[in-house]
Amino acid sequence: MLEFLSKQSPKILVVGDFMVDNYIWCDCSRVSPEAPVLIAKTLKEDKRLGGAANVYANLKAFGARVFALGVVGEDESAKFLKENLTSKFLIQKNRKTPLKNRIIAHNQQVLRLDDEDNEDIECEEELIEEFNQIAKDFEAIILSDYAKGVLTAKVCRALIKKAKELKIPILIDPKGNDYSKYKGATLLTPNKKEALEALKYENLEGENLKFGIEKLKKDFDLTYGVITLSEGGIALFDTTLHIIAARALEVYDVTGAGDSVIAILAFCLASQIPIIKACEIANEVAAVVVSKIGSVSVSFDELKNFKKSNFENKITSKEELLKRLKGQNKKVVFTNGCFDILHLGHLSYLEKARKLGDLLIVGLNSDSSIKRLKGDTRPINSQFERACMLASLYFVDYVVIFEEDTPFELISFLKPDILVKGKDYENKEIIGANLVAKVELIDYKEGFSTSKIIEKIQGQKNDTHN
């Protein structure tokens, strides 16, 4: 899929609050004699595209042909934006183009100084007219709302109406708790906190998430309901609820993660990628972004390298896994097996198992364990090879290799919520069933088994020798 996307170059329009992120890197190793505060010695400054401009930068990094439409003042920040974006900016005199100065010391943000106006723009009609003239030339539109006064209710409604007339996907990163101005959009991308405020819910756990995201979709006439859940991944509602698990391993800075998510969603929809696959890719993008400091953009090459280097991190010890699961409050699904020669039956079984909860852990028999169970001719593939194959599957979250003949000790240690076995275990004793809240039996895909594959290969060898 990434190979396909890397060859696409859709035309995407970004409208919204364009701003400048200025990073001031400092050394804070001394305390002031004048007051009990640190002295910050400036080491370097780094200007970056922020707000809607960061969405633009992400799209450019993916290879999209991007155009920016917005309103700025007559200042150095506006000049920086014009120099770095292909754009049409309406000028409003005496208006400050948003500038955010972030003070960074020892790789930590310690202070942010904002210089901006957030009053509604005075040129709504001109902005709408400009949009109406150029919208037909694009395959997707993003409204990036940072509540700085550009995307007023009047502007949003006019732009959404025009996009719908043209049958162009229009995606919105919302602000505030009144989403009525976004009614009719393709999708919104509120995070959990923003969705709670808009829905006026106390929490979005369990059934509340399903009811809440469905309500967002229905109340605001959206094509898809989407809520980003930070470490919980992305919740998607089309005709049913999907939870796409997060991929981040180390989180250093969430700045700009929302910009990256809406950028890749727009890129995917403009490239005719199904929404659920688009959300899976968005999770991968977000994982790269939060592993860095500051607003950054991600290329498909970087995303490919990130995936290659990180799937092996899903292979872990039971002790390390318990640390990772601590405090996550997720429904954990567990299954186990040899998975010696991975085949379609395995894939179907594991994908169904993953849909039963928030995380899927696969307990994998070690090489010595398989030899004791199946004889000296097995396994065909080593435990590391088998673990890597499983870890490369997007619906497998963790793989733990166990040495014992049964997974009883592993289940007892991890305490999963759901234990999954094949339907052939019906009316049979299931090891670990007494340790979990629920046991689920899943149908195997007919006609697939490792033993049959081995027999087929051996039969072909015999035919060749004859």
List the helices and strands and how they pair.
Blueprint: H1 2-5, E1 11-16, E2 18-31, E3 38-51, H2 52-62, E4 65-72, H3 76-84, E5 87-91, E6 99-105, E7 108-115, H4 124-134, E8 140-144, H5 153-165, E9 170-173, E10 187-188, H6 192-199, H7 207-219, E11 225-228, E12 234-237, E13 241-244, H8 257-270, H9 275-290, H10 300-310, H11 318-325, E14 332-337, H12 344-354, E15 359-365, H13 367-374, H14 383-391, E16 398-402, H15 408-414, E17 418-422, E18 438-442, H16 450-465
Give a brief outline of the structure:
The protein contains 16 helices and 18 strands.
Written description of the protein model:
By secondary structure, the protein is α/β, with parallel strands linked by helices. It has two domains: 2-311, UDP-N-acetylmuramoyl-L-alanine:D-glutamate ligase (3-Layer(aba) Sandwich), CATH 3.40.1190; 315-456, Rossmann fold (3-Layer(aba) Sandwich), CATH 3.40.50. It has 16 helices and 18 strands. It has helices at 2-5, 52-62, 76-84, 124-134, 153-165, 192-199, 207-219, 257-270, 275-290, 300-310, 318-325, 344-354, 367-374, 383-391, 408-414, 450-465, and strands at residues 11-16, 18-31, 38-51, 65-72, 87-91, 99-105, 108-115, 140-144, 170-173, 187-188, 225-228, 234-237, 241-244, 332-337, 359-365, 398-402, 418-422, 438-442. The strands form four sheets. The chain has a six-stranded parallel sheet with strand order 5-4-1-8-9-10, with helices on both faces. The protein has a five-stranded parallel sheet with strand order 16-15-14-17-18. A four-stranded mixed sheet has the order 3-2-6-7. A hairpin with a 3-residue loop joins strand 12 and strand 13. The longest helix has 16 residues, at 275-290. The protein is elongated. It starts with a helix and ends with a helix.
